[in-house]
Amino acid sequence: MRLLSVLITPNPTLSPYGAERTCIELMSELTRLGVHAYTLERQPAFGRTHQLNFQSFEVPRDVFSGSLSMIRISLIALRLCLRLKCDAIYAYGDYMEKSFLPAYFASVITRKTFLTSVLDDAKRHVDSKGFFGLMKYSYRRHRRSMLGYVAFHLIRRFGFRTSCVALAATDQMANYAKEVLRARRVVVIGRGLEDVWFTPTSQTKKYDAIFVGRIHPAKGVGILLDAWSKVVSKRKESKLLVVGSGPYLPEAIEKSRRLGISENVAFEGYVSDRMSMRDLLSASKILVLPSMVEGFARVVAEGLACGLPCILSDIPVLREVYGEVGVFVPKDDSVGYSRAILTLLENDELRRIRGQKGLTFVSRFKWPVVARKMIDAMNR
User: b/e string for 19-56 if b means 16 or more Cβ within 10 A?
Assistant: First the structure.
């Protein structure tokens, strides 16, 4: 079986976070199981820079300039699909326009199986609108690119309802695909973790807590900083490590200064190396993820694999996946987060028990199981 994955991020500066890393690791596992897996990516390809075991093809940078860029990317995907004699085409994210449309058009022309991952429900406010509601919303929010925005969402909806196999990590995302996107076929495949995350390390606990993710309001970084200022008022030397990049990073740094906790918060930036990321997690006492929206939150699984108790926002998808092991706080409750953080920091035995329970729980997240479910979805 031959599978082409279209892994083209919305912009050239986007670092590979959960969705991109999941796609890369899934392609690698499919290759180990005998699938001829390929990716089509921006330059430089994530697959190539991460030295994995599948072949990556790159879209030249100049293709992305001009009004016809989407057509040119789609033609590249189509030619590649025909040359490789692919049996299926996969778009790594359902609302990643530059991945979804080329993959979908290539699948329609070649009449091959089309699959896409339903990442999260961040677009619920758009997906729940009818045609006129979508037009009105796009006129208010995307006036300069209104026609393109509307066309993408209409094609995306048509694809889900006619030919797409929607892949979901959780039942919550599967229900979203069925009820809101009205997908014709939905398969829950879960998520996996590489063995490297389960390798013990002997890191000194330099940080009291760690956050990992894009620096964006949807990830709740501002709420975490508010909570951390309350933690610092009780424990003056408490140290928070924020790992990640994004357009709101300067704003987050400035907020830490305004709150008077700049000495208690370290901003690490984006970390691409898995070993380095594992070491940073292992050097922390707890992981905090106050996200407003998630599709699976693989960083929580990575934190659990490193033995960290995890404090999470109380949203349905995180309850579904991590309900057995997470400490849950209402998503906009900074006081609640500070209390949960202080409770764990002040009780070493509680942290140890929760860390061990989480490690046992997360051992079920295996890539071979996920990859075989995807192979079954392609074969049906």
Answer: bbbbbbbbbbbbbeeebbbbbbbbeebbbbebebebeb
State the average pLDDT over residues 18-41.
91
The residues pairing with 241 across neighbouring beta strands, listed in sequence order, are 210, 266
Domain 195-362 has CATH 3.40.50.2000: yes
Answer whether residue 46 shows pLDDT above 90.
no
H or E element that contains 299: helix 298-305
Q: What share of the chain is helix, strand, coil (3-state, %, to 5)?
A: 50, 15, 30
Q: How many residues does the chain have?
A: 380
Per DSSP bridges, beta strands 164-168 and 284-289 are unpaired
In the chain, CATH 3.40.50.2000 covers 2-192+366-379, 195-362
Instruction: Read off the pLDDT of residues 63-107 as tens digits, 9 standing for 90 and up.
Output: 988 878 999 999 999 999 999 999 999 999 998 999 999 999 999
Residue 355, C-beta contacts closer than 8 angstroms, at least 6 positions apart:
307, 308, 309
- pLDDT one-digit tens code per residue, 307-327: 999 999 999 999 999 999 999
Asked if 197 contacts 308 with a C-beta cutoff of 8 angstroms, the reply is no
Q: Please provide the CATH number assigned to the domain covering 2-192+366-379.
A: 3.40.50.2000
